[in-house]
What does this fold into?
Amino acid sequence: MTIGVLALQGDFREHEEVLKRIGAPVQQVRLPKHLDLVDRLIIPGGESTTIGRLLVLYNLLEPIRQRAGRSLAVWGTCAGAILLSRRILDGKPEQPALELMDTVVRRNAFGRQLDSFETKLDMPVLGEAPMPGVFIRAPIIESVGKDVHVMSELNDGTIVAAQQGRLLATTFHPELTDDDRLHRYFLEL
Ligand code: GLN
It folds into this structure.
């Protein structure tokens, strides 16, 4: 089982580091031929508009769409969560996206005052201990469809993690902490 990390833009190296630390085989994905080698794919944080354009340029958008949720488990963190969403609010016009999860996300939803912040998150699937939540110009998940399971919310009810079968979206950055429980969870998906 090899874990692909989409390595077009963003903080893919940090994801790779966590996977190496927990002993999972990692493959950087930059071209369709790399995608053939993996059965899981992490889409990192970064700039969703840039990653979206590069997905088109490198002919990765359609091959990911075809396998995602079936022979390919996909986890999007932050920009990755935006790219997975069926509907993007406050996106750039014509922003290419994978549109795989029945979620509505709003980009940069925390505004200037809260550009970046850290908090502790309740995430029952990971056990009792709170998960550190690092948010950087994060989107929020405004709503989810009936097949989507909400995994974690802020105290005010803002959805920050959701799962739809073998698709996972988190609006924060577990790869920037030393808590590797979500990476392990993804390996089980
Ligand atoms: N604001 C970025 C976007 O819209 C996401 C930020 C991140 O991935 N840390 O793509």
In short: Residues 45-48, 78-79, 82, 107-108, 136-137 surround glutamine (CB under 6 Å).
